[in-house]
Design goal:
Number of helices: 1
Order of helices and strands: EEEH
Number of domains: 1
Strand order of the largest sheet: 1-2-3
Length: about 50
């Protein structure tokens, strides 16, 4: 995955929208995640 500079998280009751952009403002990540998969997604993201 390309380097993500900023992550936006749209909170909901059971489904979350995750949006990540790079330093130039281009979309790198756009996913719909269930509550059960949210922590797993962020745990898999590498810190840089």
């Amino acid at each position: 995955m390309e380097k993500v500079k900023t992550i936006g998280l749209d909170l909901a009751k059971s489904v979350f929208q995750v949006h990540g952009v790079n330093a130039a403002g281009g979309v790198v990540v756009r996913r719909k995640l269930r509550r059960s998969a949210l922590l797993e997604f962020f745990a898999a993201c590498r810190r840089r």
